Write a sequence for this structure.
């Protein structure tokens, strides 16, 4: 198995190659030092792939990484591999998974349609909604990243798990039930892209160490407000653990209320503290040779 990475996913791809017993293949992302002056992407795969099972690992955020991934898949195909598995650790555009107003682009479907052209199967993680998989015509699976969060929390003396909204409840439940920790969820209303509010709810967190679990931190508004609420209800320590950390705008200022912020390597950042490589490696093994 050969593992090829997009430029934002090199760390995860190296870990995945190790965990799956594959070989990490180097890619050049610049033709000249500094890249093209107009910012256009470039890729060159630096090893033959003919007849190989190839795993392409590339996150689709921010936008230039989508173009880079299209180039990567095209270059991989031209090298005549036997089979291509596309691993998208973070599937950007997943939140526009419905047409909320007439005439809107169904963004998640549009991105899915283009990416699947270059692959035989797809693995992804922490989707905004599992129904997103139906936008792919190739076999597509969502791999749970919650065991990785569970492993991380395992070393952290957590005694309560909180989902900040309904969408995160399936994730928090999985983490809490596998670790035998009590959990609950808040009811969130989104006011605009930057503002949320919670229905009042008393939770038994006084003096406890709380982990807030979510799929994604974007502007940080959701988990920061949840952390503030937990502190107001007497929690003595609040850790936020999410799969994907986008940290848009002044997210880090808002997150100052948290005692710790930990995210996975689906999007590398200063909060990246654990890897989801074992989860993807396990899914690759289940998918056959
Ligand atoms: C919501 O559906 C997600 O699970 C996250 O809670 C949300 O996307 C986080 O966004 P933000 O960090 O901007 O509040």
């Amino acid at each position: 198995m050969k593992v090829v990475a997009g430029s934002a996913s090199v760390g995860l791809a190296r870990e995945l190659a190790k965990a799956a017993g594959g070989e990490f293949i180097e890619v050049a992302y610049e033709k000249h030092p500094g890249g093209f002056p107009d910012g256009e992407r470039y890729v060159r795969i630096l090893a033959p792939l003919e007849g190989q099972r190839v795993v392409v690992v590339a996150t689709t955020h921010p936008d230039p990484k989508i173009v880079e991934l299209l180039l990567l898949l095209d270059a991989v195909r031209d090298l005549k591999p036997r089979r291509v598995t596309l691993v998208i650790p973070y599937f950007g555009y997943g939140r526009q998974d419905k047409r909320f107003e007439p005439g809107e682009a169904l963004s998640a479907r549009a991105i899915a349609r283009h990416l699947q052209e270059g692959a035989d199967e797809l693995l992804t993680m922490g989707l905004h909604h599992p129904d997103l998989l139906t936008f792919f015509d190739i076999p597509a699976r969502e791999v749970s990243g919650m065991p990785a969060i569970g492993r991380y929390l395992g070393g952290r003396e957590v005694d309560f798990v909180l989902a900040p909204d309904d969408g995160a409840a399936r994730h928090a439940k999985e983490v809490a039930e596998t670790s035998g920790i009590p959990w609950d969820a808040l009811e969130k209303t989104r006011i605009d892209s930057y503002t949320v509010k919670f229905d009042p709810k008393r939770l038994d967190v006084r003096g406890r160490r709380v982990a807030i679990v979510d799929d994604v931190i974007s502007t940080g508004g959701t988990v920061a407000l949840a952390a503030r609420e937990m502190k107001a209800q007497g929690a003595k320590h609040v850790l936020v653990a999410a799969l994907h950390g986008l940290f848009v705008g002044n997210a880090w200022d808002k997150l100052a209320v948290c005692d710790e912020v930990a995210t996975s390597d689906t999007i590398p950042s200063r909060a990246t503290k654990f890897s989801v490589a074992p989860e993807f490696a396990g899914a690759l093994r289940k998918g056959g040779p």
Notes: Residues 5 and 196 are 35 Å apart (CA to CA). The chain has a mean pLDDT of 95. The pocket of ribose-5-phosphate is lined by residues 164-165, 167-168, 196, 214-222 (CB under 6 Å). The domain at 2-143 is CATH 3.40.50.2020 (Rossmann fold).
